[in-house]
Fold this protein.
Amino acid sequence: MQKIRVCFVCLGNICRSPTAEAVFRHLVEAEGLAHRFEIDSAGTGAWHTGEAAHRDTRATGRARGVEVTSIARQFLAEDFDRFDYVVAMDRSNRTNLERLAGSTSRTIHLFRDFDPDSEKGSEVPDPYYDGGFDRVFDICEAAAEGFLDELRATHAL
Ligand code: 4NP
């Protein structure tokens, strides 16, 4: 069976999208659906390529039973062919991705739009500048659950 390929995208790929990736993978594993998914993350910027996630991102995940294992990389145009769902953490990430997609006009999802309790257009705030790693984790958990609910309906999981 064809896997559902998901890539979470933020700016640096060391805080928000690694958290989203790890939280979503954890959820999918807990639901016994890991074999149906390929899950990755990337950044629109390349500054942190090759680095592990931010130490506070990893510590926050570990404290909540979720290992954050991603190694940062930049999202490239060819990634649009590699993933069924490209999921941005904020509107600026989405704009950058739309620009990269150019005339192929791919749909770029906003992660929090999958959370039924979030207002449309809500963003995952960047904890890199002002802390808030716990809050980012909570936001990602809620959005991940909504995202999986939607995927269950769309893909009959
Ligand atoms: P992220 O946070 O996009 O959630 O990974 C950032 C990490 C690094 C930078 C910006 C945002 N930076 O400019 O280096």
About this structure: Residues 10-16, 43, 47, 126, 128 surround 4-nitrophenyl phosphate (CB under 6 Å). Residues 115 and 145 are 7 Å apart (CA to CA). The longest strand covers residues 4-10.
